[in-house]
Amino acid sequence: MNRITNTFPQVLQARRIAVSNAERRLASLDAALNTIGVTLWQTDDRLRLIDSMGMVVAESYRGRPMSEFYRDVYGLSTVASQPVHAHEDALKGQSVTLHCTHMNQQFLMMIEPRRDAGGRIVGTVGLSLRLSQPGEAA
User: Three-state SS for 5?
Assistant: First the structure.
């Protein structure tokens, strides 16, 4: 019993250190993705943002529909939004690639169905790559 009692605080401390190191690595990865113009994200099956890394997607949109993000950040209506339709198509099992322009910057977006271990579609996963810098010819 004494050995278990003495080990538990050590295990707990080692876990805290591991979590802290992982958080630092994730922050570094997020900063690197932002620097090179990449955004990664995933949604649930109702197209609510679950998680993101890299450029643009604000933490305040977590749990909210992607349509709100595209409307608020890019000024795109849901009806006319290519990215929203691409997410809807991914929920139907399609792999979607599209080019978008925002503030004179070109982006390549790839959106795929996100599946569980049984193959059922449970959301989407997306990647956006900035192809041009502000001010470059689009």
Answer: helix
Cα 37 to chain center, whole Å?
Answer: 13
Q: C-alpha 5: how far from its chain's center?
A: 41
How far is it, in rounded angstroms, from Cα 133 to Cα 66? 24
Residue type at 13 in one-letter notation: Q
Residue with tokens 């790839």: 110
The 3-state DSSP class for residue 51 equals strand
Q: Give CA–CA dist 111/95, Å, rounded.
A: 6
User: Tokens for 14?
Assistant: 């080692």
**Which range, of 29-33, 47-51, 72-76, averages the lowest pLDDT?**
29-33
